[in-house]
Amino acid sequence: MTEKKRQIIVFLIFAAAALSAPFFLKDSYLITVLIFVGINTILAIGLNLLLGYAGQISLGHAAFFGLGAYISGILTTRFPLDPFLVMILAAFCAGALAFVIGFPILKLKGHYLAMATLGFGIIMYIVFNETVSVTGGPSGLSGIPYLSVGPLVFDNDWNNYYLVWISTLAVMLLAINLTQSRIGRALRAIHDSEVAARVMGVNARILKVQIFTVSAVISAFAGSLYAHVVTFIAPASFGFHFSVELLTMVVVGGLGSIYGSFLGAAILTMLPEFLRVFHDLDIIVYGLMLILMTMFMPGGLVSGIQMVTQYIAARKAKRKDEHAQA
Amino acid sequence: MLRLDSITKIFGGLTALEEVSFSVAAGSITGVIGPNGAGKTTLFNIVTGLYAQTSGEVVLDGKNISFLDTEKLASLGLVRTFQNVELFGQMTVLENVMVGLHTGTKSGIFSCAFRLPRQIKEEKFIREKSMEWLEFTGMTDMAGVAAANLPFGKGRLLEISRALAANPKMILMDEPAAGLNSRETVELASLILKIKETGITVVLVEHDMDLVMDICDPIVVLNLGKKLAQGSPREIQENQEVISAYLGSD
Amino acid sequence: MDNFQQLIQYVLSGLSNGAIYALIGFGFAIIYNATGIINFAQGEFVMLGGMLTIFFLTVFHLPLVPAVLLAVMISTIVGVVFERLAIRPLRNAKPLRLIIITIGASILIRGIAMLVWGKDTHALPAFSSNEPILIAGATMLPQHLWIFGVTVLIIIISRIFFNYTMMGKAMRACAYNAQAAGLVGISVKSMTLISFVISAAIGSMAGIIIAPLTMTSYDVGIMLGLKGFCAVIIGGMSTGFGTVLGGLVLGLLEALGAGFISASYKDAIAFIILLLILFFRPEGLFSKKETERF
After folding, report:
1. Does domain C3-117+138-280 have CATH number 1.10.3470?
2. At a CB cut-off of 8 Å and minimum separation 6, what does C234 contact?
C-alpha cells in the first residue's frame, strides 16, 4: 500500500507543479513552449503505450496526430459543428482506422513492422499534401476556430495552457492506471515473451491491435488540441520527421515510463526553442540521441535518474557506516 | 482427461512424430520420456497449439482442441512451462504470477484506465490470489524481485507458480528438472506431488530418470517419433525395447 | 508525341528507376541475410554515393572515374564505421533496439550531409553525352544505358561472388545457419562487417548512377531506401532474380501510375504496394525456398 501512496503523491506533486507553473512564469513565450510540451507529452505517452509497454514499434504515429488535427480543422472550419463533438469524432475515426489496419500490420514483427508503419505514415502524409481541395495542401489550413466552453474562449496562452495541461494530466492519469492493471501487465508480458504470454491466456494478437487503437486515439486527441490551439495546420508537422521526433522523445525519456514520456517531450520541445544552434542541427542531435541512448542508457533518462539516486543513496549509506565505525 | 489420437507431425520431409496416441488420466502425474530427438517437445508444442499437427486429434475433457489457438487453452484449464524457462524478465516475481490470473479475470482497457470499482476489486483479488500461489511454492520473500534477476532454479519455480495461478486442470511441464541441482530436484519432486494433491493433473517431459521413476505413473516412452511403450515405472524399467532404445543397441 | 511513344517513355524511365530500386534492395538483403537486421540507413548510402561524387567533381574538379571511386570508398567506410561503432556492440540486442539504432544512424548521416552540403538539390552531369538516342519514336538518354549496364554488371559480379568465391559461399553459409557456419570456422563477425561493406558499396553505386537523371539532395535517401526495401520485399529478401523483377515491376508501376493517373501520388504507389505485400505475402512474390537467399 505504501508503494501506491507514493505513486499518488508523486502524481499530485507533478500535477500541482504543472498547474501552478504559469503563476511563476512572467514570460508568456515560456508558457507557449510549455503548451507544446503538454501536447507532445500526450503524443509521447500514446506512442510509449505501444512501443515501451507492448514492445511494438510505430514509425507512422505522426499520421494519427495529423488525422486528428485535419478532421478537427476541416470540419470546424467548414461546418457549424461543435468542436468538442468533432474532437470525439476525430478520435473515433483515427481509432477505427488503427483498428482496421492494426490486424494486418501488427501481424508483422520487428523490422517489418517498422517498415510497414513507416509506409503507412508516408501514405497519409502524401494524402494530407495532395488532397489540396480538402486539406489546403502544402500551404496548410488556416482559420481553425478556438475552442470555447460557454463564455470561456481558449484564445490566449493562459487559457490554452490550462486546456492542454488538464488534458495532459488526464491522459497521464489514465495511462498510469492502464499500465498498472491487468492489461498493462499483459502488454509487458507480450513484450518480454509473447509465447509465454499466450500460454497464460493473453490474446496477444487482439491486445496489440487494441493498444495500437488506444494509441491512435490518444494521438488524434492531441492532434485536435493542436489544431484548435495553433489554429493553423500544414502537412509538414505530420510527416516522417515528426514520427522520428516522437520516437526520440520516447526513447530519450524512457521506454515504458509515463513520466519518462513527459521528460522526453519536454527536452525535445524545449531544446530547439532555447538553443538556436539546435534549429539547424536538429536531426543530427536526434540521431545522436537515438544512438547514444540505445547503446548506453536503454531505459532512457528516467532509468538514468534512478541509477544516480540509487548511487547517491548507496554512497550516503556507506559514508554513514564509515562514520559509525570511526 | 487428455487424449492424443494418432498425432503425426511432418516438418518438411522429416517425420517428427508418427501416429502417437495415449491418454492422460485425471489426477495422474504422467511422464513422457525418450532419448533426444524422440519428439517430446514437439508433442507438447502440438498439444499447446504452438505447432499444428499434420494429422491426428488432441481432445481435452471431451472437447477437440486440435486447432485451437494457444491463448484459448489457458481458459480451458491447460497450461505449460518451458524447457528454457520463459519468464517476463522485466516484471517482478509477483507481477509474473499476476499475469497467470489473466484468464480468470475480465477488466478491459476502459475499466482499467478509469479504475472502475469492479476493476479495483478484481485487482485486489488478483494480488491476493497471486500471493497465495507464491506462498504455495515458497517464493513469498522474492515477490518484489525482477524475474530476470532470479537464479535459474527459482526461475523454474516462478514459472510453475505462474502456471498454477491460471487455475489449471492440467499442467504440462517441459523438462522441469533440467538445470537444477540435486537438492532443487528433490524440492521440485515434492512440489509436483503437492500440486497433484490439489487435484491438478501433471504431464511432464523429463530426462531425469530418477525423478520420473519416483513420481510418475504411468510413463509413456517415445523413440524416434513413435510411441514405444506405456506403463508403470516398473513395467517400463523391465521393457526390453525401452532398454535397447536407451542403450542404443539394436 | 502519341500515346504509344509516351508509353515507351514511361516504360524506359520506369525500368531505369526499377534497376536502381533493385540495387538498393540488394543492399537490404545482403545485410539482412547476414545479420537479421533491416538497415534503415541503407538509403543514406545511396544519398552519400550521389552527393560525394558531385562533391569531388565540383569542389576538387576530379575526373568522373576517380570521383566515383572515392565516393564509393567513402560510403563504404561510413558503412564500416557504422557497423563497428553501433551494430557490433549490440549484436545480441533485441530487434527493437537495433531498429532504433539504425534509424538513429540514418538521420545522423542525413543530418551531417545537410550540414556539409546544404539543403539544395544538385545534379550530377551525365556520364557520357546528353544526346538522346531515338528508339521506336521514344527518346532514351545515354544515362539510361549506363544504369542498365552498371546494374547488370553488379548483378553478374554479385552472382559470381556469392556462388564461386570462398567468401561469398561463407556468407551464404552464415545466412543459412550462422551457428553451424561458426562451427566450421567461418567468422560470423567478419561476415557481418563484409555485408555492410558490400551493401554500402552497392548502395552508393546505385546513388551515383541515378543522380544524373533525378537530381540528388541530402534527403533522397529515405524515399530511395524505402523503395529499395519495397523491391526486396517483393523479391522475398534475396539478392536473386526476384528482387530485380520486384524493382523493375515497382519502377514500371510508378512510372505508368505517374504518367497516366497522377504524378502527385507517384510515391504513394510504392508504399501501397509495400503494405499490400507485407499484409498478404510477407515472404515475397517470387521467393522460392527459404534457403536460397543470395
Report:
1. yes
2. C242, C243, C245, C246, C247, C249, C250, C273, C277, C284, C285, C286
